[in-house]
Every structure is written in structure tokens, then in C-alpha cells.
Design a protein that fits this description.
Layout (H helix, E strand, L loop, with lengths): L15 E2 L6 E2 L5 E9 L5 E10 L1 H6 L15 H8 L2 E6 L5 H13 L5 H12 L3 H4 L3 H6 L14 H19 L1
Helix pairs in contact: 3-4
Length: 177
Amino acid sequence: MLVNVMPRAKSIRSGWRCDSCGKLISGLQAGWVEWLAAEDTKGKPKVSGLRLVHRRNASQRNTSPRSREPYGCQYNPRDEFRKNRGIVEGLALDRFAGPDGLMLLLSMIAEHELPAQEVIELAKRVQIPGYEAVHELVHDAVSEGVIAPSISSGFYLQCEIWDVLRWAKYRTSTKAS
């Protein structure tokens, strides 16, 4: 099977969308990945709420309404503890990038440290060039017949990601005309 891979020089990574404020996280150093650890009603550990947000110092420089809050876009540890005795855990976004980041993500899946679907989605957002730019558009692209996923829904080849990007650019330019 021949797979068309996006050349590194053409990488379209320009950042990630913050799961809290929705604004752009422009680089690895500005991002933070966090989650909540608590106990369920039977006293068993429960981990949830995985999200990619602005690192606190980055969100404080940001112009979002959340930037004035003491924790910026990140979970407020005191509030989470009050809600369900949850503890906020997290790591810098750069820990999830590159080959070592991919290995960390795979180990989290293998060890069932976090819900697998949430970790897989984070892996796609951080590791797959172009995925972050299209993951919110791809449903419309599929329904309009722009692409038919070769693998399955939610898992797109680089050529499919590029097709969605071209379609989105064309769609935006025709709306502006």
C-alpha cells in the first residue's frame, strides 16, 4: 500500500485550538495538556476531562476573557476539588510532541491511564500534520462528498486532510466573493 505523506516543508501546523477559550495556541511552549483524577462512587480511581489548553502564563498574555482568571484557561484546582474531590493533573504540550510524545501517548492508552478515545484524539491533534486544522470541518467535507475516508471516520490520510484544507479554502474564498 502506497501512502502519500505530507512533505515536512509543507507542514501546515500553525497551532492548536484551546479547548477552554477556543483561541489559538500558537506553539508547543504555549500549550498545556490537563485532566482530572478523582474517585467514582465506589471509590475506584476515575480519570476524565482530558483537554489541550493555554499554559497559564500564555493565557495570561492572551486577550481572552479567561486570561484575567487566576488559572487562565486551565482547570481551577480548588473548584475541581470542591466539585468531586478531583485533582488536576497535567503536562506541558511539548511532552506529547514528536516520537517521545507519541510513545507517551501510546503508553497512556496501553496502561488505561485516561479514556482511550480522548487520548487517541489528542494524539491525532498533536501528532498528525493538518489534523488540528480539519478535525472540526471534516464531517461537513464527508457529507458534501469532498472525501470518503479510506481508513474510517475520524482517521484520515494526509491526502484526505489536504483535500479538506483545499475545499475549506475554496469554500471560504467563494463566500467572501
